[in-house]
Fold this protein.
Amino acid sequence: MKKLTLAAAFAAMATGAFADPVDGLWKTQPGDTGGYLHVSIAPCGSAICGTIDTAFDADGNEQLNYENLGKQIIWDMVPEGNGSYDDGKIWAPDRNKTYSSKMSLDGQNKLTVKGCVAGGLVCRGQTWTRVQ
């Protein structure tokens, strides 16, 4: 029993030790409609991905029937070190467009997310805040 408990504790510590600093739940800035999202960011293979967890209208009311719940919004984001991520894609639900993307952490609770076109010459970005 002691060995099993010790093995479980070690596995939990090892998993936490390898967690990426961007892992967690993030609140987007309001989109074109004034609504915002909570996006769950986690590893997917060797990359980082984000999935729409919860949607809110402009008044902050949860939108249980939001058609894009559970949809992947970020994929193929490659950790570059020092809180920078590159070579990914991001889908903007308010415009239904997919962009080349990069992200960067500012401390532990701010995430700058950019979607770019024209080889990175034109970018649109937001700063997301950590929910958890």
Remarks:
- The longest helix spans residues 2-17.
- The two ends are 33 Å apart (CA to CA).
- Confidence is low (pLDDT under 50) at residues 1-17.
- Strands lie at 24-27, 36-44, 47-56, 72-81, 84-92, 97-106, 110-117, 122-130.
